[in-house]
Design brief:
Number of strands: 0
Helix content: over 70%
Shape: globular
Order of helices and strands: HHHHHHHHHHH
Strand content: under 5%
């Protein structure tokens, strides 16, 4: 089956989930498009239509990552527009240094976060298992590492904290805006590779 057809089928499945569409801005919920399909067993239908597991997996990652990228871009530029309208002269405009980079970076951050989360979701293959891995990582480890002097430098290289550098007009720490998003891209690639390894080695 052509890759374009795989993308269309993945988009159709995600679009048909009304609750998922409404929650698209919550990237962790988007990963249910991966974990939920395996936990329910409905992935067998997809694998019947697309026998090449790697192709199916790539379609999922591109679809989820692309949708998150689009949502992030809208959110980024909307934040600039709304912020300027509310703050007036105290706000920042699109022409201010770093603003466009930050808005575009919001899309990149969302997209990479979705790919990372989808890759992790392919490991336990259940929504609960996925959230039990992602929630502590993003809500516990990041703040904990950032609050302790001994681990602060290491914490800057965690996926979410590294990626967030591009959102700041004036990034601080060891990583800059683009180096931070590059580190996050590395984490996303690692998670995607781990998910593919799991998909190819395990039975459905």
């Amino acid at each position: 089956m052509p890759f374009a057809a795989v993308l269309r089928s993945e988009w159709t499945k995600i679009r048909s989930l009304r609750s998922l569409s409404y929650s698209l801005s919550a990237i962790l919920v988007v990963t249910l498009a991966v974990a939920g399909e395996w936990s329910s067993g409905s992935v067998r239908v997809s694998l019947t239509a697309v026998t090449r597991r790697g192709l199916l997996y790539a379609g999922k990652l591109v679809t989820v990552g692309g949708l998150a990228l689009a949502v992030g871009l809208v959110a980024g530029f909307a934040s600039v527009t709304v912020g300027q309208a509310l703050l007036g002269e105290a706000g920042v405009s699109v022409g201010s240094p770093g603003v466009v980079r930050s808005a575009v970076g919001c899309g990149l951050y969302f997209g990479l976060l979705a790919v990372f989360s989808a890759g992790v979701a392919a490991l336990p293959r259940s929504p609960v298992g996925t959230l039990s891995l992602l929630v502590p990582l993003f809500l516990s480890l990041g703040p904990l590492f950032g609050s302790l002097d001994a681990t602060r430098k290491v914490g800057q290289f965690l996926p979410d904290r590294a990626g967030q550098q591009i959102l700041h007009l004036a990034p601080e720490g060891a990583l800059g805006a683009w180096s931070g998003i590059a580190v996050m891209a590395g984490w996303a690639a690692l998670a995607a590779a781990a998910g593919l390894w799991s998909l190819l080695r395990r039975d459905v």
